[in-house]
Amino acid sequence: MRGGYFLVLLLLLAVLPYSTALDSGMCVNAAITSVSPASVDPNQDFIVGIEIDNCGDLAHMPSNISFQITRFSPDVSIKESLINDVGALGFANSKRFITYHMKMSQNPTPGEHFFEAKLIYGEGNVYQTKDYNFSVMVESSQPELVISGIKPTPEKITPNQDVIVTLKVQNDGKGDAKNVRIKLEGLDFEGVKEVYMGEIKADEELPARFVLKSGASGQDDFSIKVYYEFAGESEMIQFPSSLHVFSEPNRLYWIVPSAFLILILAFIYAIKVKARKEDGDE
């Protein structure tokens, strides 16, 4: 029996400090007070501000407080140590502010980037843990190039004809596209089928002109390939397109009716000449 009482006493001694600490008014909270700027661009520095608040009473203030970021986006780099040792707060209801200086990568995924964090506080061997999460929003500043129009001149193309093909290239994105090149791949026309356009800024539309000579009649399917650079990276997108080359009218179709018309006119003329002679003889 003495062994049993002794075991119960040991359990009480082990649990009592925890119970005392948790029920004595010991309390610490953390709050994410700011993300500056609120919306982060690629390759931009930003700051996360955190407020640590001692919400307990004066008699039971924890001597050890730490805040740590446990999980974050791979597009984010954090300059400080992930674990911030806050130490002891000076008095009840006191606050302390900590900051993390971060930087977004050059080509992050647009949208929300989530963080997980942990607040640990207590004294001696007794600690409490509170979990937190927050996020930062990344706006997409990438270019978005589209072909907004294609126009051949003349509009009705016939075989072996000089043609000017004009493409309208529009940037619907928020970033500038640099070193833009347009290539017509698979088009069975003669001529230079690649044009260098340079930079196309956000919300800008520029024309790309190709001076070509058409090929055989029929539908000519091809790809419009757009090459550009953004944030030091080379990109390529392509768009399917087609041009129709109309057959030239057969010249025999014109020769027969023309010859028939000439014969009719000659016959009428011969009748008139004969009539004049007869009138003269009388």
Question: Can you describe what's shown?
Answer:
- There is one protein chain.
- The strands form four sheets. This protein has a five-stranded mixed sheet, with helices on one face. Strands 1-3-7-5 form a four-stranded antiparallel sheet, with no helix packed on it. It has a four-stranded antiparallel sheet with strand order 10-11-15-13, with no helix packed on it.
- It is α+β, with helices and mostly antiparallel strands.
- The longest helix has 30 residues.
- The chain is 18% helix and 51% strand.
- The chain is rod-shaped and about 145 Å long.
- It folds into two domains: 137 residues, Immunoglobulins (Immunoglobulin-like); 101 residues, Immunoglobulins (Immunoglobulin-like).
Short characterization:
The chain is of the alpha+beta class. It is 18% helix and 51% strand. The protein folds into 2 domains: 2-138, Immunoglobulin-like (Sandwich); 145-245, Immunoglobulins (Immunoglobulin-like).
